[in-house]
Prior knowledge:
The chain folds into two domains: about 20-145 and about 265-310, 3-Layer(aba) Sandwich (D-Maltodextrin-Binding Protein, domain 2); about 145-265 and about 325-345, 3-Layer(aba) Sandwich (D-Maltodextrin-Binding Protein, domain 2), CATH 3.40.190. It contains 13 helices and eleven strands. The chain has helices at about 1-15, 20-25, 30-40, 55-65, 80-90, 105-115, 165-170, 185-200, 220-230, 240-245, 275-285, 290-300, 330-345, and strands spanning about 45-50, 70-75, 100, 115-120, 140-150, 180, 215, 235-240, 250-255, 260-270, 325. The strands form two sheets. Strands 1, 2, 3, 4, 5, 8, 9, 10 and 11 form a nine-stranded mixed β-sheet that branches. A two-stranded parallel sheet has the order 6-7. Helix 8 links the parallel strand 6 (about 180) and strand 7.
Amino acid sequence: MRHRLGTLLLGILTLPIGLTHEALAQATVPTMDELYQAAKAEGAVDFGGAVKEDAAQELLQAFSKKYPGIKVSYTRRSTEPMVQLIEADRLANKVSFDLINLTEPADMVRYKTEGFVQPVPLPDRDVLLPGTYDPDNYYYALGITPMYGIYNTASLKKAEAPTSLKALVSDPKWIGKVAISRPSRGGTGAAALLNVVDAVGVDFLKNVKERDILLTRGNEAAVSSVISGERPVSWGVSGYRALEAKAAGSPIELIYWDEGTAIAQFMGAVPTKANHPNAGKLLLRWLMTKEGQELHVKAADFYSPRKDVELAPRNEPPLSKLKINLFGNDRLLKTGQELSSEFDKAVGLK
Length: 350
């Protein structure tokens, strides 16, 4: 025992002087094969998230083919119901998922602070876009989606559609014409609101009630409102939903705002007390590989947070060609939540 301890201490003392704690952590990251052997011994992985069911199944089939011997299951919920399910589990002192996926940064930050999720270092984290991962490796953006503006092509010709957020929230002709998901419902709506405020200034909240904006319970409902023509424009909806609706033949077109398009993140993390922790880590790390990310783009209509993945969903421009506004989780958590609360008060909601 003394010999082993002495050897360990000697190893630490003889580390290169310039080796940081992060570099040391990266140096001890298990290989994918090592993780696979441990995951195969666990025998299963349970994934819970907001990714579309058919897309998740396509991803999990590819994972199973690459890593046979691990039974996979998926439970789909949007972020709010997923958080409710996780919290119910916590009250019952159990954990149902080995990998969770949420769009609300506040919950991920809280789970990190409370020790509910664990760090999972990636050996190639440097290829990720800044702001798409936790600096301490507790969570990562499995996919990112533009919060596209959209308009109804049956109601508006291309030349009539707005291209500027400033015009959309100041020109009288757009009063009563806009539908959005209520920003206080989650990170995607908060990102879209933050994008507007950055473009036009916070003073627009003083008169926002007069704009008669239709508030929906989620992005899907906002998209539906534009498709139906109830409100012909939205300043920002989840991109994958807009792309899916457009591909299905719905009368909508995307708007890339002059001031830039907000980006929302679908974050993944492994619970500390996961029933199959190695399988959860293996699935997370595989989803973050170039192979996993390229399949995610194709299957789920997301963009990738990896800088070396140029593939874009449904022949849209690659992310590198777009004017994007990527807000870090710290800013979304603080400023985004504050603005969402101010917005609710300004339009008369509690």
